[in-house]
Amino acid sequence: MKTPKEYQDFCKATLFPALEEFEERRKAISSKRQSLLLFVLILLVAQVIVALLDYIPVWTIFISMFVVPFLFALIYKQFFSDKDLANEIQDVVVKESVKFLVFKPSFDEKIPLPYNHFAESKIFLQLPDNYEGRNVTKGKLADFETLFSEVDCGYLQNAGGKKGEWQTIFKGLFLILAFEKDLEVNTVVIPNELENDLYLVGKQIQKYNFQRGQKVPFDDDKAFSKHYVVYADKPLESTYVVSPFIREFLLDFKKQTGIEVSLSFMGKKIYFAFATDSLILLDLGKTILDFERIKPFYLCLTLMQVVMMDISKRFIIKKTGIDWSI
Description:
Elements: H1 4-18, H2 20-52, H3 59-79, H4 85-101, E1 103-108, H5 115-120, E2 130-141, E3 144-156, E4 166-178, E5 186-191, H6 194-197, H7 202-212, E6 214-216, H8 222-227, E7 228-232, H9 235-241, H10 244-257, E8 260-266, E9 269-275, H11 291-315
Antiparallel strand pairs: 1-2, 2-3, 3-4, 4-9, 5-7, 5-8, 6-7, 8-9
């Protein structure tokens, strides 16, 4: 795995030049938005002045206070936005970064990793009505076989026989590491809020938690227990798998990135689910040619490496794992 310094140098030399055309699009949109905002402000100020001179009733100002924001938002959305910009930038960031970070990568930008791999993690047990994604990649990271892609899946929540609302199960980066040694314990680490976010209640939660195993208490680590819950088929052994180092790093990662991460240890594989709407930090008012804007993807892979290094050291894992066909 490349160091942060090496990745920053790569960004300056290779990634940022590839993003120049998107930077120009961002500048154009930002400039148009500033012009629109200035025009609206001038219009409102002019109306106030005219009203104070008794050319129009004062009450028209109050009407404008309600009407103008609505019209502004409508025009803003229709003519001063670029809904595809974030995804296009993210695709370039992922594709170019994969070439630099992953050893001998195979890449398909049109599809996600197969659903059976996603389901085997036991992180998300709600059956999706739709499963899609892109940028599936396989190769070696930290000397171990890896398979990852962006995933977006959800289900239709029905209530009382009526058609319900669409609920997202997971959207973000899903990554799998494989190795030759069986950890001989199945352990799932998920955020405490996950069931609430999926609108699961009562029997659903009981059913899913039963499939994951027994709940493992970490009473001596209150900071971790506040944010995460652990399930395992062998509770005692799982406390060794989810080491103090891993627990602390998960908390630091959330604080640093704002990305919610779940993970599971299943036999000879480790699964990572990074829940985020975007792997870049796009702000149309700021340049995208900035390491801080595109580093979330790199930090996700860094967390994977840190966890794998800790596991391989404690379980003495020296060989890579299986290969995948995509």
